Inverse folding.
């Protein structure tokens, strides 16, 4: 078995070249340079220089193309063989009336093809059964031993494969036509129908396509087809009725209907019609209707025997009836056992078949001859079909990226190339998975535009585009370069001279192939994901073909030129395992891939990309091109162009050829002329003497092709006067026609005298180089003893350039000699001019004495005469005289500094460096250095830096040594060591984690002041100490002020103190104070702020000064919700400095209270004027309420805020719950006391905090008093507390008034009466109140239910605490809902004088972010004085029902999760987490706002 795709091992990498810019400028020259290395691999990759980036020139908006469809597992040769085999065996069973179901063995689909092949290799079915070798078959199929799999394979083979193999071998076997009925676990096989679906014909309309198209409809048969095809001729007898399945005249219906199991099934009806001429005409229902007719035939009560068929025909035709005889025994007796074939109408006795059938089969039956004929039909040629959709680059890219991202379930750029490669070969080798991709291949650049800029008149190019349009690496330019052979072909050969474009997606592939005429090819990836390539060198091309033919002979038997169709892949690992050398590479965007002559290559795309490719041919290709023509002649394959015509065209103009090309053409021309002489001689020997000249290049290719081998003729051809429609090349003169030789004649392009003349011109062009080379060799080697002048050498170089001689070694030597001579002349002139310039000479251009002598020797050794040699000799003599004078001065040291300096100046004027001059220079530098050290260490001098000291030490090491120099260096080193030690100590103090106190730092600074060097770290330590002292002073000032310091000031001091590298005792105390203040603020925030609140603590504690503006308030809430609004003090109108003054905060708070009250009154008036969402005519307008979600609340479910009077969706805000009460009491309130129901609703814009009780706030104030720090939140909390206490006092005073006390007593009496009511049959009455009865008449029958509700403990339980499985809360809500129509009111009569103060108190209490009992008492009193708000109560009930339903659903989900976790051995979910789930519903308003804004 072949290795699986999971075992795919990438082949070795191909060579990768990175040319320099100099190499890159000559494309074909560089390719010739790398050819010896790259040709061994077949393909190579070239990375251009990084800044070579051609612009993409395709007009993206106008680029539209139709891709090809590729089904991956049909590309691979071995997989296609398996699929073809499965299709054939499926067709076999389909004809038998069954569908093929492939069994699963050991959890994988059984490979029927491999099973069949192994059985044949092991000796056949009978031999394996005889020797009991089925276990070996299982072993060869890679099944594990010891599981009795061999017997299972034998069973499957006997049931599925063996009948088919018997038919293939021609045995007369009738199999069971229901072999799959009991195999429910088998996978039903749907035939791929590769031969039918992908049968192709060469396109007649695609002028530039070298690939075939698929899905072309089969043409209707012509009269000629019918005459040639005996089957068609036979069908013609029976008229134009439906044709037999399998003849290719009608598409086959591949769907098999279920057979009716109740009644018997019969073959299709055959009707005999009498024609006017007396002929009998038979109409059969196959192939399409014989399946469809089975349902109709199933109603027939009788079995389908010969007699039945006879009764359906016309009994008057005796001759027709006598044809009903058995084909085996030639008898017509026993009609009831005579079986009629539904394909050919032949008859068989059921007992004459082998083996005999026990009874007449039901349904469609085919005889063994029909089954064998259908299954042995040869497959059609395989090719690709075109997609039906036209794409743009954008739409194709979106489709490709979406496909890849969905397939790999990750972003396209994150998919590794190795993963795509393994998956590609897995899919290609898979029989089960059918993955289809699309590939925009072979798109003609002439029609759609090249990806490179092109110089034409269509549009103006920018300078950058012009540069790339003329570049040799532009694929539109490379085929027609001067060194390229294809530039001598006039026609634009698509794909060879004119590039093709390729738009790929992941897995789209190009199959194993070589280029036309075995030419080079070059591919450039403009952009996109990589393209993976595989290549085989030309030396292994025939080996690859042999391996593929050996492994898949079935494909090559039906399609011998399969490898020329670019439709077949084979796994590189398979090829490598058979000894074929394969390399690979990943071509990334901006890279070239080159394939060499006769190098097989294939590959696939890693994703969406755009590539361009073209062919080119160089001089070294010519022998390969000639061999390719011979190869094509043997295969009888058409040529793209005439090789002979190409050679002759180049030979006709030899002066235009590159010298290398001329030499190669001469060699090819010589071989071609010799072969032509031999062929024409053979023609004469045959007796053909007639001849005429023919300009073959003017004829269309199809008129000059050899009818035998399809070669395009040019030099000569043999034709016949009597057979003018055809001709042959001289290699097939015996295959033209049967006419006499005297009627045949030669058609030639050149005579045998003209060909040698052309050959001679090529030779002159090729050999002109030798004459020139001899001249150059004599000049360079001075063979005649005379040196040439520069002008003579330049003339030789010009001759080589004009005659376009190759860049040979001799030419390079000549160029090097000229360059060297010109450089010497230039250098000599510079040396002479430098002496004249004197001290103004450019520094760094002097040569040494040794270089001067070497330069003179170089000039003498050149094979060129130069008069500048005398000038150089004179300069050398002057330098030698100066050298002697300098040596004398150095020998008499110490000399005077003036003498040494004058000698130095004289040496500089010479323009040549003398060693003695350097010694003089060092003596002068020594004196200068000692003087500089003396100035630096003088007491009166300015302190130098450490860098200056180090610089002096470094400079002292380079001066001439002396005792004075040694002493100065020792002093400098000692001073530098001391300074660095103190600098290091200061650095440790600045960087140490443990900070030192100020006293320690002061001591270090005092000691370092005595060092006469500037120390940066000591200076930094001084600055840090000064900052520390200033920080301590600031702390003392802020701690000793009139008020406690503000938290912001303390935090700023702490931040500054932490950054100082000084140990500060006060810092720890300040940090503790800040930490305590933060702890108090956090505690206050937890007390006041809701979870995920959009407000700050200070905003909640301060009054809302802009409460009067609904839009401002709402937009501010939205900004807070989205984190866009961060000012804490804007509402109070205070700056950061004002917050430090307690008086300013108190005054601002008082003003804010008044603004808040005025604002809320204005807002209430505005909102009250808005239309009610509950009204049916509500429409969106500028005066319409807007919920926090941004939508207009309308209809049932809308709630009105009791403070701001605005409307909101009940599902978007937190709403009160009717079954929870603010004050638990031993005796719960009666449910019919509706005024005590919790129906009060405040919107999230009004109720900004948790509103803790006053007792909790007082505890916070006590903790605040202990803080030695002032916080704005603390002062605001004090103001809020004072405001709350003040309101509480006024509320208690109002509640204690005589009128209000009487009303409260009346309410208490009503509550007691309801609680004391012993479930009467009639509703209770309230004689002491003038208000109407709280219950309508007839509601007494519901009182027991209501009182029962009161007895249920769940009636006062918060929905958060009700278990999801309990239904009592639901029953309570349903009961309350049923009582809503019976509620009436008011139960109290509140005079306006009493109501108005209470309503004002109620409004002021709702503005407080504090919970007070008096607020609730006033609310109940006001509620009792007005009718019950039935709409609000109904809305709250519906919202609470929906919430309870959601809680139960979440509870059930949590319970299921807990049980699954327990089943897996884990622990149950955290109960606390489950309790928190329902509470999350309170935060829905925030999510609503976010969803609206985004």
């Amino acid at each position: 078995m072949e290795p699986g795709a999971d075992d795919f091992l990438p082949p070795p990498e191909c060579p990768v070249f990175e040319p320099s810019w100099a190499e890159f400028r000559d494309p074909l020259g560089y390719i010739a340079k790398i050819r010896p290395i790259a040709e061994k691999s077949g393909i190579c990759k070239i990375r251009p220089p990084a800044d070579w980036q051609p612009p993409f020139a395709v007009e993206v908006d106008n680029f539209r193309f139709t891709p090809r469809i590729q089904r991956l597992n049909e590309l691979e040769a071995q997989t296609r063989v398996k699929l073809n085999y499965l299709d054939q065996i499926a067709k076999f069973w389909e004809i038998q009336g069954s569908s093929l179901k492939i069994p699963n063995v050991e959890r994988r689909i059984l490979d029927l093809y491999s099973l069949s092949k192994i059985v044949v290799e092991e000796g056949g079915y009978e031999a394996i059964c005889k020797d009991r070798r089925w276990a070996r078959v299982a072993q060869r199929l890679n099944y594990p031993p010891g599981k009795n799999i061999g017997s299972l394979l034998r069973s499957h083979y006997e049931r599925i494969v063996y009948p088919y193999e018997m038919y293939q071998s021609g045995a007369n076997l009738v199999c069971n036509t229901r072999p799959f009925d009991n195999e429910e676990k088998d996978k039903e096989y749907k035939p791929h129908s590769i031969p039918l679906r992908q049968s192709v014909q060469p396109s007649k309309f695609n002028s530039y396509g070298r690939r075939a198209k698929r899905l072309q409809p089969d043409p209707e048969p012509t009269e000629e087809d019918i005459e040639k095809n005996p089957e068609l001729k036979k069908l013609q007898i029976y008229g134009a009725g439906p044709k037999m399945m399998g003849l290719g005249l009608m598409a086959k219906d591949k769907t098999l209907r279920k057979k009716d199991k109740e009644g018997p099934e019969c073959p299709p009806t055959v009707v005999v019609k009498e024609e006017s001429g007396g002929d009998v005409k038979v109409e059969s229902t196959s192939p399409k209707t014989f399946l469809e007719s089975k349902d109709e035939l199933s109603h027939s009560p009788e079995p389908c025997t010969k007699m039945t068929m006879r009764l359906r025909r016309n009994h008057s035709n005796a001759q027709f009836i006598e044809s009903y005889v058995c084909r085996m025994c030639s008898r017509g007796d026993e009609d009831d056992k005579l079986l009629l074939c539904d394909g050919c109408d032949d008859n068989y006795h059921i007992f004459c078949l082998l083996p005999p059938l026990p009874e007449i089969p039901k349904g469609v039956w085919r005889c063994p001859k029909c089954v064998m004929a259908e299954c042995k039909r040869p497959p059609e040629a395989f090719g690709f079909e075109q997609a039906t959709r036209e794409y743009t680059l954008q739409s194709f890219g979106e489709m490709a990226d979406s496909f890849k991202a969905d397939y790999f379930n990750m972003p396209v750029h994150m998919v590794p190339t190795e993963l795509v490669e393994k998956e590609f070969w897995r899919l290609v080798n898979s029989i089960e998975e059918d993955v289809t991709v699309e590939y925009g291949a072979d798109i003609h650049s002439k029609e759609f535009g090249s990806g490179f800029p092109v110089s034409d008149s269509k549009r103006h190019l920018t300078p950058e585009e012009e540069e790339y349009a003329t570049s040799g690496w532009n694929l539109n330019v490379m085929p027609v370069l001067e060194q390229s052979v294809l530039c001598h072909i006039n026609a634009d050969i698509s794909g060879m001279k004119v590039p093709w474009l390729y738009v790929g997606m992941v897995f789209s592939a190009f199959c194993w192939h070589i280029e036309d005429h075995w030419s080079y090819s070059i591919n450039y990836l403009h952009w996109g994901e990589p393209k993976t390539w595989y290549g085989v060198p030309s030396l292994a091309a025939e080996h690859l073909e042999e391996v593929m033919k050996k492994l898949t002979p079935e494909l090559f038997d039906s399609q011998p030129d399969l490898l020329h169709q670019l439709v077949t892949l084979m796994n590189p690992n398979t090829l490598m395992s058979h000894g074929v050398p394969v390399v690979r590479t990943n071509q990334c965007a901006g890279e070239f891939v080159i394939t060499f002559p006769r190098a097989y290559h294939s590959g696939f795309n890693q994703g969406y990309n755009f590539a361009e490719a073209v062919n080119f041919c160089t001089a070294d290709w010519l022998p390969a091109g000639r061999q390719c023509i011979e190869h094509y002649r043997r295969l009888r394959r058409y040529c793209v162009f005439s090789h002979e015509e190409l050679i002759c065209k180049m030979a006709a103009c030899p002066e235009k050829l590159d010298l290398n090309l001329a030499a190669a053409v001469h060699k090819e021309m010589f071989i071609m002329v010799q072969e032509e002489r031999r062929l024409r001689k053979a023609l004469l020997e045959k007796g053909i003497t007639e001849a005429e000249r023919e300009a073959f290049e003017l004829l269309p290719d199809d008129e000059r092709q050899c009818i035998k081998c399809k070669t395009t003729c040019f030099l000569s051809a043999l034709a016949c006067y009597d057979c003018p429609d055809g001709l042959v090349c001289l290699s097939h003169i015996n295959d033209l026609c049967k006419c006499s030789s005297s009627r045949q004649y030669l058609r030639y392009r050149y005579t045998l005298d003209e060909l040698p003349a052309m050959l001679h011109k090529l030779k002159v062009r090729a050999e002109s180089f030798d004459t020139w080379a001899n001249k150059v060799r004599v000049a360079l080697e001075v063979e005649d003893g005379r040196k040439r002048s520069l002008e003579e050498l330049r003339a030789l170089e010009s001759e080589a350039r004009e005659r376009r001689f190759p860049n040979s070694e001799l030419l390079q030597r000549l160029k090097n000699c000229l360059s060297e001579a010109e450089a010497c002349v230039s250098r000599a002139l510079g040396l002479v001019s430098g002496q004249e310039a004197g001290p103004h000479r450019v520094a760094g251009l002097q040569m040494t004495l040794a270089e001067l002598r070497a330069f003179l020797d170089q000039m003498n050794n050149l094979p060129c005469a130069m008069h500048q040699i005398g000038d150089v000799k004179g300069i050398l003599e002057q330098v030698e005289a100066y050298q002697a004078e300098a040596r004398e001065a150095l020998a008499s040291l110490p000399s005077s500094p003036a003498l040494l300096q004058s000698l130095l100046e004289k040496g500089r004027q010479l323009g040549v460096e003398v060693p003695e001059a350097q010694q003089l220079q060092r003596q002068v530098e020594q004196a200068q250095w000692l003087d500089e050290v003396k100035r630096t260490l003088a007491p009166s001098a300015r302190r130098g830096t450490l860098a200056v000291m180090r610089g002096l030490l470094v400079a002292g090491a380079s001066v001439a040594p002396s005792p004075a120099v040694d002493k100065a260096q020792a002093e400098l080193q000692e001073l530098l060591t001391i300074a660095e030690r103190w600098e290091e100590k200061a650095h440790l103090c600045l960087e140490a984690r443990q900070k030192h106190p100020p006293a320690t730092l002061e001591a270090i600074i005092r000691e370092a002041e005595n060092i006469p060097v500037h120390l940066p770290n000591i200076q930094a330590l001084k600055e840090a100490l000064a900052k520390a002292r200033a920080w301590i002073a600031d702390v003392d000032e802020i701690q000793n002020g009139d008020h406690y310091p503000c938290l912001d000031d303390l935090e700023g001091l702490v931040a500054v103190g932490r950054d100082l590298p000084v140990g500060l005792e006060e810092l720890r105390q300040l940090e503790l104070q800040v930490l305590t203040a933060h702890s108090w603020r956090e505690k206050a925030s937890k007390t006041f702020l809701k979870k995920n609140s959009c407000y700050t603590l200070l905003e909640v504690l301060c009054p809302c000064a802009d409460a009067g503006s609904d839009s401002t308030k709402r937009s501010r809430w939205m900004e807070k919700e989205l984190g866009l609004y961060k000012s804490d003090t804007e509402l109070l109108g205070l700056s950061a400095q004002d917050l430090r003054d307690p008086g300013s905060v108190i005054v601002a708070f008082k003003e804010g209270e008044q603004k808040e009250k005025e604002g809320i009154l204005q807002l209430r008036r505005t909102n009250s004027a808005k239309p009610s969402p509950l009204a049916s005519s509500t429409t969106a307008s500028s005066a319409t309420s807007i919920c926090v979600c941004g939508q207009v609340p309308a209809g049932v479910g809308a709630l009105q805020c009791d403070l701001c009077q605005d409307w909101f969706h009940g599902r978007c805000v937190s709403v009160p719950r009717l079954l929870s009460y603010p004050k638990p009491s031993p005796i719960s309130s009666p449910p019919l006391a509706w005024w005590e129901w919790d129906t009060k609703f405040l919107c999230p814009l009004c109720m900004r905090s948790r509103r803790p009780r006053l007792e909790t706030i007082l505890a916070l104030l006590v903790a605040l008093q202990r803080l030695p720090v002032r916080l704005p939140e603390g002062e605001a909390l004090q103001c809020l507390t004072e405001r709350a206490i003040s309101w509480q006092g006024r509320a208690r005073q109002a509640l204690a008034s005589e009128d209000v006390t009487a009303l409260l007593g009346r309410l208490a009496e009503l509550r007691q009466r309801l609680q004391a009511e012993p479930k009467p049959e009639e509703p209770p009455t309230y004689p002491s109140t003038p208000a109407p009865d709280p219950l309508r008449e007839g509601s007494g029958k519901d009182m027991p239910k209501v009182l029962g509700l009161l007895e249920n403990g769940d009636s006062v339980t918060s929905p958060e605490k009700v278990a999801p499985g309990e239904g009592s809360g639901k029953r309570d809500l349903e009961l309350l809902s049923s009582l809503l129509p019976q509620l009436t009111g008011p139960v109290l009569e509140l005079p306006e004088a009493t109501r108005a103060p209470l309503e004002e108190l109620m409004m002021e209490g709702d503005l407080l972010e504090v919970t007070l009992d008096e607020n609730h008492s006033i609310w109940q009193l006001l509620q009792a004085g007005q009718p019950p708000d039935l709409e609000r109560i109904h809305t709250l009930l519906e919202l609470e029902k929906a919430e309870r339903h959601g809680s139960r659903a979440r509870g059930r989900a949590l319970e299921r999760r807990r049980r699954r976790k327990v089943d897996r051995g884990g622990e149950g979910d955290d109960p606390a987490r489950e309790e928190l789930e329902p509470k999350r519903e309170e935060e829905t308003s925030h999510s609503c706002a976010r969803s609206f804004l985004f």
Q: What stands out?
A: The chain is about 45% helix and 10% strand.
